[in-house]
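TICKET: design request
STATUS: open
ATTACHED STRUCTURE:
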């Protein structure tokens, strides 16, 4: 079983901008869901398996840069984790910076993410 320090490290690595490293965090059969809204427009992503997850992660890495990352709370009850964090999201396309709060619910199996649900809202 993956222990608390390993799960904490996985959560922290989710903010790295390297596509290959991000993809390596997910199990081949992982599930990813991202939900939130910006400018009053809902955004929802759902993918099953790394073949579907990789293109979404690629778009996110190419489009956004994260700065001023702060974990507000991190709860780990292996094999699950819940993280509440704040970050400034910079659009590489428009240059706009949006302070955002996020909550990530993560399940880990075999040292890799098997399920990742993320909710976000600009603050």
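STATUS: resolved
RESOLUTION: sequence designed for all positions
ATTACHED SEQUENCE:
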């Amino acid at each position: 079983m993956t222990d608390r320090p390993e799960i904490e490290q996985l959560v922290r690595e989710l903010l790295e901008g390297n596509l290959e490293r991000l993809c390596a965090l997910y199990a081949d059969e992982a599930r990813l869901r991202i939900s939130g809204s910006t400018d009053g427009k809902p955004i929802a992503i759902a993918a099953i398996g790394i073949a579907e997850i990789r293109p979404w992660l690629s778009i996110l890495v190419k489009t956004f840069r994260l700065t001023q990352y702060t974990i507000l709370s991190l709860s780990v009850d292996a094999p699950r984790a819940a993280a509440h964090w704040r970050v400034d999201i910079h659009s590489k396309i428009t240059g706009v910076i949006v302070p955002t709060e996020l909550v990530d619910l993560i399940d880990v199996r075999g040292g890799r993410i098997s399920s990742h649900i993320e909710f976000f809202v600009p603050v």
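CLOSING REMARK: The radius of gyration is 14 Å. The mean pLDDT is 94.
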